[in-house]
Structure of Phosphotransferase enzyme family protein:
Amino acid sequence: MPAAFSILDPVALATYLQEHYALEAPISCELLSFGVNDTYLLRTATEPMVYRLYRPGWRTAADVAWEIALLAHLQEQGVDVSVALPDQAGTHQHWLEVAEGPRLGALFTFAPGVTPRWAEAKSAQSFGASVAALHDGMDSFEDPGGRFRLDLEHLIDSPLATVLPLLTGRPDDAAYLADLGARARERLNELALQGLSEGICHGDLHGGNVHVGDRGWTHFDFDCGGVGWRAYDIAVFWWSQSLGKAPANLWNDFLNGYGRDRLTSADHEALPWFVVARTLWLLGLHAGLRPRVGSASSGDHYWQHVLDFLRTWETEQLSATKGTQQVT
């Protein structure tokens, strides 16, 4: 019986990594999470590390090489990030033959500190400043190519093509999502012509892919990064805080830390529309994960929660910002 997905034995993986990376024993390994990719926590005699096993068909070798090169560049620029480690042969990525076929893997340094708690203005403002430094470090990266772009095809069109067939039993909701996606695409295309800021983006700055500690903020998990619009990159934090019903002031605190003047007027106006784009992108991601995590994870409650969020967002943010600049 063929396997669509498999979970590696952590003990066997620890032995494999010790052999290829000459890690100092004793070594232990445990599965941290699975979903988009499989992530393992590796503990050695000297330091912890994180091993990422990319999901089949998710990233090409060129995609992973781009991510690894970006991380090395950011480290050279003095930006605190989790970087990929070379094995004994000097290779930063490799293929593992597993039950479902070959999968790419890479070993990364562990980001020190803890996941931030978004309860204080100081934290959000400091995080915003760290994202500004991250973007500054990315500006000097010589893009080797071979990476996908965070364009409207990636953020809106492709996700909707995956999601809408799942809503045949909810025709009104399907029509709403299709219409909202079309309006978001139209408005963002208009704003792009007015001067949206472009550059390398992290792609997943929701506030959980960073640790904060004594040495400051350490960013990790650039798996969703690529060339795109900077307003989208920071709107992901607004989306995450709004979806989690965090205090509204946290977004303003983040913007103050990031620097409002770093954004064009078109960037500011695009921010609420990029929250829509982020939501649609995530719907597409979850739809694509159904064969891996099961369809029960996206039942009626899931759809209702997301659609309620989008309809409320449209009423409170999009309707209030037509033709105006609004970032509160």
